[in-house]
Amino acid sequence: MLVWDRCLHAWQKRDSHLGRVLTLSMLLFLPAFTALAQPNLNLKRVVNNWPVIEVYYSVACSGSPVWNLSPGDIRLYDNGREITQFTMSCPDPTVPCAMSTALVFDASGSMAGPGNAGAIQAGKAFVGTMDGTFDEAAVFWYNSNVTLQQGMTSDTALLSAAIGALPAGGATAIWDGIYAGLLEVQANGQNNCRAVIAMTDGMDNNSTVFPATLVSFANTHHIRIYTVGLGTAINSTELEQVALLTGGKYFETSNAAALEQIYLEISQYIHEQFQECRIDYTATCPDGAIRLVDLHVQNICGGSDVKSKTYRAPLDTAALTPLPLDLADVVTDGGEEFAVPLMLASPLNGEILTPLSFSLCFNTHLFEYLGAEIQPGTLLEGLTVTSVSIACGIRVQTTGSKAVFGAGELLRLKFRAIQSPLDTVVGDLAVMTASFESGCLKPWMDGAEVTVLPGHPMLNCDM
């Protein structure tokens, strides 16, 4: 029994030590496991289809895509203002997306031989991934000009025959070829997953359309452009930018035999709804400024992530939100100083007021301008205001920006009634122009009436 007791005690000590070692090991490795579980947010691009802003993104946990996001998993900000009204969609990886695609092939002289054979093989392989019912495609080739070999159809036999007729001879008008493909997809494509796939082995030397036009048209009509560069005589920078800015992808190879695998990969991207989610929201601030979009994903695979991108809003001052400002009417005595406050009538809730400038015209024979000031405790406290003389009066300018809460006084203008009239006189302080330096608001300013009363009579008590 004593031997057994000693053995049992030794085993218990060993198990206790082993437990401590295991526990310590788990604690040491726990941060690594936690880090692996953090989400990876890829904010791909922000497209301005004003007033709708489109945000394209994907999320992965430990390298695996996450498609089952809900609005509660997202927080979205436009220039610091949270967007609470938005729509979102993510692909269903179990349901292929029917596609409408334009296949645009380089048929220039440099494609003769292996390039032409590789393009034909790749195009036919792509057609082989189509379901023959809903998927549809068109076939173009370009050299000095663009030829529509086969219009949009789901007939894979017709498409394969069109690809097999691909020639080789002439110049390289790739941008014109892509544009023709975009027009065909827009006019005749019936499906949601729409794309143009364009390959080339050279630089454009004959187009009348430029890449910026392609990007604008594609984004407006939700068509992705996939570009494929073959060989070394290509402009990879332009090809890649056209693809990235439209939500497509750029591929490059020096081996024409590799084109087949590239086209198969592109087919998978399109059928999987381009492997990205999308958020749409309506913007309301056409101030012409570059605006920052912040996208947060939260509580996804045990963590959160945030990414940012920018877009430029259009400039339409007529569509900015009017902000009523009012110069208060004043009654004063002749020869006396008086102040005219500029009032914010409608309360704000943290909106940023950027520098305000306005021109004020008045009868300089009736009023003398003394200056402007921002009083402690008023809405613009902490900022400064300056003014300069103009032909009919003054030009006033605030400096700096400030978040404003509530309503009340912004600043005040100081004058003196120059003379004491024999009878009551009314003079106008007329606002000629008014504007904020930037932002979503435009000042809607009313002028003021200043009533000058006759001065008090001087009494002479000396008799």
Question: Helices, strands, pairings?
Answer:
Blueprint: H1 2-36, E1 39-49, E2 52-61, E3 64-65, E4 74-78, E5 81-83, E6 87-89, E7 99-106, H2 114-128, E8 136-142, E9 146-153, H3 156-164, H4 174-188, E10 193-200, H5 211-220, E11 224-230, H6 236-244, E12 250-253, H7 259-271, E13 277-282, E14 290-300, E15 303-312, E16 321-327, E17 330-333, E18 337-353, E19 356-361, E20 367-373, E21 384-390, E22 393-399, E23 402-417, E24 425-436, E25 441-446, E26 448-453
Parallel strand pairs: 7-8, 7-10, 10-11, 11-12, 16-25, 17-26
Antiparallel strand pairs: 1-2, 2-3, 2-13, 4-5, 4-14, 6-13, 8-9, 14-15, 16-18, 18-23, 19-22, 19-24, 20-23, 21-22, 24-26
Helix pairs in contact: 2-3, 2-7, 4-5
Write a structural description.
α2 runs parallel beside α7. The strands form 5 sheets. Strands 9-8-7-10-11-12 form a 6-stranded mixed beta sheet, sandwiched between helices. Strands 17-26-24-19-22-21 form a 6-stranded mixed beta sheet, with no helix packed on it. The protein starts with a helix and ends in a 10-residue tail after the last strand. α6 links the parallel β11 and β12. The protein is an alpha+beta fold and 463 residues long. The N terminus is likely disordered. The protein is built from 7 helices and 26 strands. It is elongated, with a radius of gyration of 35 Å. The longest helix has 35 residues.
